[in-house]
């Protein structure tokens, strides 16, 4: 291409990340004359996807501007690495929390054997009038099973039934 812009550079980085070539993605990212939030987030997501949480956090910390995707991707990385204290800390720092951010935290707690914390986060989410999605409900069912909490399982089941109609 004779003329490249931030969109074409980011598209190439997305392609390399999708193909699992983080070396080439990182090279292009380093060469970019100008970056936008999408290019930064693509690198975070790529590093998280391939388990390089230190690099993901480095990119996150270097970002001049962060959004809910930046926070959520990094929270997800910490959760996948089993570092729920860091995931929670970052969640608390996030200025915006969408349903995906709540899901990342709740699912992280469940997958890391902390079902009580998952339920606590769900209760906090509900108190803030955030409507859960099907991913959160599946995680809650798993938390109920880990806890042996039949009452919570019945609540989740009735909530899902009400939402389906």
UniProtKB/TrEMBL annotation:
One of its GO terms (molecular function) is RNA binding. The keyword Repeat applies. One of its GO terms (biological process) is RNA modification. PPR repeats lie at residues 5-35, 36-70, 98-132. It holds the Pfam family PPR_2. InterPro entries: PPR_At4g14850-like_plant, PPR_rpt, TPR-like_helical_dom_sf. Coiled coil: none annotated. The keyword Mitochondrion does not apply. Keywords: Repeat. PROSITE patterns: PPR (PS51375). NCBIfam families: PPR. This is Pentatricopeptide repeat-containing protein. It comes from Liquidambar formosana.
């Amino acid at each position: 291409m004779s003329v490249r812009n931030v969109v074409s550079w980011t598209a190439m980085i997305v392609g390399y990340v999708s193909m699992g070539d983080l070396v080439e993605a990182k090279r292009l990212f380093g060469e970019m004359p100008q970056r936008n939030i999408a290019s930064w987030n693509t690198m975070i997501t790529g590093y998280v996807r391939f388990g390089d949480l230190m690099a993901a956090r480095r990119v996150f910390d270097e970002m001049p501007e962060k959004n809910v995707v930046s926070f959520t991707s990094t929270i997800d990385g910490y959760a996948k690495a089993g570092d729920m204290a860091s995931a929670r800390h970052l969640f608390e720092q996030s200025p915006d929390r969408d349903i995906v951010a709540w899901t990342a935290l709740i699912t992280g707690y469940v997958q890391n054997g902390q079902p009580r914390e998952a339920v606590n986060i769900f209760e906090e989410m509900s108190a803030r009038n955030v409507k859960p999605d099907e991913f959160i409900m599946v995680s809650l069912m798993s938390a109920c099973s880990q806890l042996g909490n039949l009452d919570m399982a019945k609540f989740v089941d009735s909530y899902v039934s009400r939402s389906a109609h």
